[in-house]
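Figure S4 source data
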Amino acid sequence: MDVIILEDDLDFAWNLENMIISIFKSVDIVISTDNFEEITGYLSRMNSPALFFLDIVIGQESIGLNIARLIMENKMSSKIVFITDYPDKVLFRSVYKVHSYNIILKKSPCFEEEVKVTIESALRDIFIDGCFVYQDRFTRFSIDREGIIYIETVKGKKKVCIYHENGVYMLSMRMDAMMQKLGDGFCRCHDSYIVNMKKIAEINYRERKITLSNGGTCYYSYMKRKEFLSCVKGEKDK
C-alpha cells in the first residue's frame, strides 16, 4: 500500500516516515512533502488505493480539507488520516469526521500505536467479506478471494497479474503487499509467484514446477523451498 504524507514540520514528517517503514515492510511512502501541489499532482497519476496522512494547521485548514475533497471525489477507496496539534479545534468538528478515516493527535502518548492500528486497518480494508476489492483511476473490480489461482509479477512493470477462475486481472501492487493481504491459504513460493495452495493440481519436485487447476504453471525457488514445502504439508494436514 502507498502512503502519502502532507506535513509542514519536516522533522515530524521524517520521524513519521521512519516509524512507518520500521513496522510495515510492505508499505511504500511515495511522497512526504509540505507542498500541497505535489499531492494534487500525484492524485492525477495514481492508479491504486493509498493512505494519506494530512496535517491540519489552524488558519490553513482549507488546504487539508480541499485535498481531502479531491481524494474523496476521485479516489473513493483511498483512506485519509488527519494529524494535528489542535485537538480542541479539530476532534469535535463534524467536517473532519466526514472526510477522515481517522484523526490522530501528534502529541498523543499513544501516537505510534494509533498510527500502527490505523495502517493495519487500512490494509485489511482492501479485502471485504472474503473479496479482493481493487480500484484505480480507470477500473474498479471485486473478486472472490478463494477463486484466485495464482499471482505473477509482470516483467519490466510494477504490476502483477491475478489469475482467477473468472479471468485475468492486472493491477499495480507489490507482491509483498499482496501476500500480506491474502494471508492463510496462499504461499509466496518464488519472488515472482504467489499460489493458492488449494488450486495446486500437481507438483514436480525434481523441477520445482507447480501445475495449477487452470493448467497454468509456475515454480517454487530454491530459496523459498522450505517455506513452500511447509505450506504443502500444512495443506495436507488440514
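Figure S5 source data
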Amino acid sequence: MRRGFQAAFLLLNLYLGVIFYLWVRQFEPGGAAPSLQRPAGVEGWLPIAGLMNLRYFALTHHVPTLHPAAMFLLIAFLAM
C-alpha cells in the first residue's frame, strides 16, 4: 500500500512537471499559442511562499489568495 501511494505521488509530480514545462515553453519566442493554464499543483513546490503565507495567516487569520497550497503543505509537513 505504501509503495502504491509513493508511486502515485511520483506520477502526479511528474505529470505536474511536464504540464508546467509545457506551460513555460508556450511563452518562449516561437512557442505555441498560449492554450495551457498553469497547473495549480506547482504551488506545492514553493517552500518559501509557504513560509511567507504561514506568517501572513498567523498575523491576519486569513488564507492568502496567492499560493495557498504551499502553506497547507508546509502545515502538513510540520504536523507530521
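Residues 2-79 form one domain. DSSP finds three helices and no strands in the chain.
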